[in-house]
């Protein structure tokens, strides 16, 4: 079982990491494994063996700081930057603000600390053994600088202005983090990145950035939305309050800003507050929200209702699970073609967030972790809401997903085997020992034999176990297929399979 959990932790997906800190260890794993697979230098490959061994030990002992250290080393080696004291120090730095969404009427505080312990080097090429003797000769300072948003991971955008120069920076930012408060009155409305650059007389040693969204009048709009939610029907209160909760989570580093569009989300919430019940009889593609009580958070989920929907007729439902790094929007992407197929064939479709972008739907990291439990609960809550709000055919509820979503599909099938009419895991893996529990559920499994992200052996093992139990399985292994391109080309076949199967009575 330990080996299975490690495989789940190392399983990755289709969505690129956004340029923010701190990414989860699962997301860092995504990049590390992808980079490692492209390395051809035998000397560097040999170093990966030691890194992988250290990673397994750190993962299983729960030392996330050490996990980050080893992953950072592996990625630095993979891209040819090498790994020395300077690289290690820079990888440890983490900048955070007290509020990523700033109204110019209030100041913002930025802090700089470290994700794992490492002393600052005195000079760019100073070996770690010289620190004690030379540190006092090169005191540390920090520059706080406003940049345009980064265009690529870890690549700062254009420098706009220097905000402050802070002296007396500690060599141990875990024990004594830097904190600096600055005024944003003269900063125009826009999306930015605030970077903190650590330097001494020998030059810049390292830097870290964090998002900053400046909006005039933001506090008034927040106050108005809170008041509107109190007066609104209970069914839409979470929809009105969602952007405020998301802004809180982004500011506290609970969630990455990613694709969150503060202007669009606040405007949508204001529209709901004015129109009272905008989702009544609504068809097409839209987003809903609800309060996940055990997490104390508002969860988003995406819905598609075909134009043919009629309350007096039962309709099939697909629950679609995104991959690692994705969100409730991912399975609605045009490249999947799922909304067009849902419209054409009369399916209702719902895509949960799954609590976090790396929640794992109760599979990754184990069901007994808070993250795993909340991720599983989120999916099942969305299913319950869809059953409550729409006339769903109870014998035609389907579960599918891509990558981590495929892992979640098999995991949730094992936990709730009496719900699903059929399963559609794409490019996933699972625990073959669980197949006995859901062998009665028809399944269509898709995987590419050239998948370097989640190797095809994961699906092969599951299919082999299902066939031993005489399960109904259609297996599509795409010759030369990678991790992402196999999903769109086989989506209509998955819908064909769903069309043909109903839940056993």
From TrEMBL:
Gene3D superfamilies: alpha/beta hydrolase
This protein's UniProt keywords: Hydrolase, Signal
Gene Ontology terms for molecular function: hydrolase activity
Protein name as annotated: Peptidase S9 prolyl oligopeptidase catalytic domain-containing protein
Record-linked InterPro entries: AB_hydrolase_fold, Esterase-like, Plant_Biomass_Hydrol_Est
Range of residues in the leader sequence: 1-19
Membrane-traversing stretches: none
UniProt-listed PANTHER family: FERULOYL ESTERASE (PTHR43037:SF5), UNNAMED PRODUCT-RELATED (PTHR43037)
């Amino acid at each position: 079982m330990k080996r299975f959990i490690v495989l789940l932790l190392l399983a990755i997906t289709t969505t690129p990491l956004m340029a923010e800190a701190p990414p989860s260890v699962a997301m860092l794993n995504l990049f590390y494994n992808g980079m490692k697979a492209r390395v051809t230098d035998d000397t560097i490959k040999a170093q990966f063996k030691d890194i992988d061994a250290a990673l397994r030990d750190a993962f299983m002992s729960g030392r996330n700081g050490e996990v980050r250290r080893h992953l950072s080393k592996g990625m630095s080696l993979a891209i040819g930057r090498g790994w020395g004291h300077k690289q290690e120090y820079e990888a440890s730095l983490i900048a955070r603000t007290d509020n990523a969404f700033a109204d110019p009427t209030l100041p913002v505080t930025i802090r700089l600390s470290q994700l794992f312990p490492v002393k600052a080097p005195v000079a760019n090429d100073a070996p770690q053994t010289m620190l004690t003797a030379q540190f006092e000769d090169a005191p540390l300072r920090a520059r706080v600088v406003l940049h345009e948003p980064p265009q690529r991971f870890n690549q700062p955008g254009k420098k706009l202005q220097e905000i402050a120069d802070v002296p007396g920076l500690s060599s141990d930012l875990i024990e004594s983090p830097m904190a600096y408060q600055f005024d944003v009155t003269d900063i125009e409305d826009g999306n930015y990145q605030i970077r903190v650059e650590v330097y001494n007389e020998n030059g810049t040693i390292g830097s870290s950035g964090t998002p900053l969204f400046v909006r005039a009048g933001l506090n008034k709009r927040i106050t108005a939305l809170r008041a509107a939610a109190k007066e609104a029907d209970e069914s839409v209160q979470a929809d009105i309050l969602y952007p405020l909760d998301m802004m809180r989570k982004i500011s506290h580093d609970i969630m990455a800003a990613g694709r969150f569009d503060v202007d669009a989300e606040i405007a949508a919430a204001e529209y709901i507050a004015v129109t009272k019940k905008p989702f009544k009889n609504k068809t097409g593609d839209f987003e809903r929200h609800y309060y996940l009580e055990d997490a104390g958070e508002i969860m988003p989920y995406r819905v598609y209702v075909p134009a043919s929907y009629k309350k007096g007729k039962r309709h099939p439902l697909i629950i679609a699970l995104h991959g690692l790094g994705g969100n409730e929007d991912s399975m609605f992407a045009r490249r999947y073609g799922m909304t067009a197929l849902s419209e054409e064939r009369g399916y209702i479709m719902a895509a949960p967030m799954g609590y976090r972008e790396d929640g794992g739907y109760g599979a990754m990291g184990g069901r007994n972790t808070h993250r795993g439990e909340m991720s599983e609960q989120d999916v099942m809550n969305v299913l319950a809401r869809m059953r409550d709000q729409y006339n769903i055919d109870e014998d035609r509820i389907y579960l599918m997903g891509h990558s981590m979503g495929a892992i979640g599909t098999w995991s949730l099938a094992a936990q709730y085997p009496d719900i699903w009419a059929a399963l559609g895991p794409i490019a996933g893996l699972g625990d073959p020992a669980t197949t006995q529990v859901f062998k009665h559920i028809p399944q269509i499994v898709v995987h590419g034999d050239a998948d370097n992200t989640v190797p095809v052996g994961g699906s092969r093992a599951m299919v082999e176990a299902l066939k031993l139990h005489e399960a109904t399985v259609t297996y599509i292994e795409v010759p030369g297929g990678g991790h992402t391109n196999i999903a769109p080309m086989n989506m209509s076949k998955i819908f064909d399979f769903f069309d043909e199967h109903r839940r056993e009575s």
